[in-house]
Amino acid sequence: MSTPSESVKAPVKSLSGLVPFLKPYKSQIALALMFLVLAAVSTLAFPMALRSLIDGGLAIGDRSSQVMALEGHFFELFGVAVALGGFSAARFYMVSWLGERVTADLRNAVYGHVLEQSPAFFETTQTGEVLSRLSADTTLVQTVVGSSLSMGLRNAVMGLGALILLVWNNPYVMLQVLGILVLIVMPSLWFGRRVRKLSRASQDRLADSSAIAGEVLNAINTVQAYTAESRESARFTRSTDETFTAAVRRSKARAVLVAFIIIATSAALLWGLYQGTQAVIGGRMTAGHLGQTVMYVIILASAFAVLGEVYGDLQRAAGATERLMELLGSHSPIRSPALPLAVPTPQTGSFIDFDGLQFSYPSRTAQAALSNFNLCIRAGETVAFVGSSGAGKSTVFQMLLRFYDPQTGEIRIDGINIKHWRLGDLRQRLAVVPQDAVIFSTNAMENIRYGRPDASDEEVRAAAHAAFAHEFIMALPEGFDSFLGERGVRLSGGQRQRLAIARAMLKNAPILLLDEATSALDAESERMVQAALETAMKGKNGERRTTLIIAHRLATVQKADRIVVLEQGRIVEQGTHACLVAANGVYAKLAELQFTH
Question: Most distant CA pair in the chain: distance in Å?
Fold first, then answer.
C-alpha cells in the first residue's frame, strides 16, 4: 500500500470516520448511554450514603435507635450496590453488542469495497496488507467501540461528577486542584498525538509482516523447490522484529503518558485531601464529610487513571481507523455509469468492435500495451490471438472485461460502447477459462455453480458431462460433494481446467474467452480439454458462441475462423492459418519454429 502521503485519503482522519457505522444504531447507543449515566450516578451516590452512615448512623444516642439507623444506612448502601451492578451489567452488554455489530459492519464494508476495486488497485496494494486491515485494524476498532469508549465515557461522567461535588463541598481547595488538573491536560494531549503516530507506524509494520506471510504461503511449492525456507523465515523474522520495535516505541510512549497522568493527578488530589484533613482537625468539616471527600477523591483519581489508559487506546484506534478509512476512501476508476443504457437480449453470439484503442497500464505509462488497435469480430466467430509474450494478447481480454479503460478509443459489444453498460450486465455476457484455473476451497458442485449461482444440481451435472469432468468428479470420495482443497490441490492440472470449462459452460454466456486454456497440459489432458472447449464454443441449440482464444501453441488455433497476430500492441497480420502461412510473414515464421521442431 502506498504511504499515507501518497495514497488517496478519505476526508475523515480519525475516529469520526466511524460515525456512519454508528448512525444505524441510535437507539442502542441511547440505551448504552442511559445505562452508562445511571451506573456513574450510582457510583457517585455511594459516597453520599457513606457520609450519611458515618455522620448519622454512628452518632451518639440511644443504642437501639443507633442500631436501627445503622441497618437503614446499610440497606441504602446495598441498594446503591444493586443499582450499580445492574446498570453496569446492562451497560456492558449494550456496548459489547455495539462493538461487535459496528466492527462486523465495518469489516463487511471494507471487504465489499475492496472487491469492487479495479486491478490497478492491486498493482500497488498487497493482499496481506488488506487482510491485516480487515483483521488487526478492525480488532482495534472493536476494542474501542465495545470497551474503551464506554469506559472512557463512564469515567469521564464519574470524574466530572466527582469533581463538581468536590468543588461544591470544598470550593476553595478544589478550585486549586482544578487549576492543576488543567495544566496536566496540555502535556497529555502532546503525548497522545505521539502515541497515535507510533500506533499508526506499528500497524503499518504489522501489515508488512502479514503481506510477506501471505505471499510466501501462496507460493510454498516454489519456496520449497528452491530451498528458500530459511531465507523466507529470516525475511519474516526481520519484518516481525521491525514490528516489535515499532510496538515497543508505541508502548514506551503510552507508558510515559499513563505514568504522567496518574502521578500528576494523584499529586493534585493528595494536596486536596491534605487540605481536607486539616479542615477536620480545625473543626471545619465532619468525619462523614471527610469520608465522602476521600471517596470522591478516589473516584476522581481512578477516573483520570482510566482516562489516561483509554486516551492511549483511542489514539491507537484512531491510527487504525485512518488506515481503514483510506481503503474506504479509494475509488475505482472502473464503475458502472450513473445511467446505464438498456442492452439487447443476449443471443448465443455477440459481435465486438475494437475501435482505435490506445492503452498503457497505470504502472507502465511510458509503454503502450495496445496501440491503434482496430478489430471487428462477427457474432459466432472464433478469433485466435497469437504473438510473443507482452504483445498485448491478455490486454485485449482485460479491456473487454473492462478491468481497465483505454486512454483513447472504445469497445462496442452488439453496437453499444461497454462504458455505457452496467458492469454486471457486461460481465454476464462473458465467460472466461483462464490459463491457471481458479478452484475455490469448497466442493466440486459449488465450484461449477460459481458460474451461475441459481443453477440446479441437474444443470451443474450436465455442464460437468459436457466438459468431460463428470467421470473424474464421480471418482472422488464423495463425488460432487467432495472438498477440493485450497486452490484445488486435490486435482490435476487437466482436471482443474475441465472444471473451469464446466463453470464457463454453465454460465452460458454469448462470448467465451479462452486464455491459454491448454498450455500447461500433457497430451492426454490436452486432448480431453480441447474436446471440452469445442463443446463449450457451441450454445445449447448448437449455435456458435463468439469465441476469443489466446494461444502460444499454434496447433490449438489452426481451426480458428481468423488468427490475429500481435506485436508490441499492434495488429501486424490477420487471416486463416493457411492464408497466413502462405503470406510468409510473422505467423509463418512462428509456425515454422513450432511445427518443424
Answer: 126
The model's pLDDT over 497-523, given as tens digits with 9 standing for 90+, comes to 888 888 888 888 889 898 876 665 566
| Integer CA distances (angstroms), 114 to 8, 238, 331, 379, in order | 14, 29, 9, 35
Per-residue pLDDT, 551 = 81
pTM of the model: 0.68
Give dist(CA 19, CA 311) in Å, integer: 18
| Cα separation, 226 vs 282, whole angstroms | 85
Q: Which DSSP letter does residue 363 get?
A: T
The distance of Cα 71 from the centroid of its chain, to the nearest Å, equals 58
Q: Alpha carbon of 322 to those of 82, 137, 319, 506: distances in Å? A: 41, 10, 5, 43
Buried b / exposed e across 374-395, counting CB within 10 Å, b at 16+?
A: ebebebbbbbbbbbeeebbbbb
DSSP string, 232-281: HHHHHHHHHHHHHHHHHHHHHHHHHHHHHHHHHHHHHHHHHHHHHHHHHH
Q: How far apart are the first and last CA of the chain?
A: 46
Structural domains in the chain plus CATH codes: 15-329 (1.20.1560.10), 343-429+552-597 (3.40.50.300), 431-508+511-544 (3.40.50.300)
For 259, other C-beta atoms within 10 Å of its C-beta total 11
pLDDT given at position 178: 63
d(CA 315, CA 191): 10
Tens digits of per-residue pLDDT, 176-192?
666 666 666 666 666 66
> Which residues pair with residue 483 across a beta bridge?
443
Q: Amino acid identity of 597? A: H
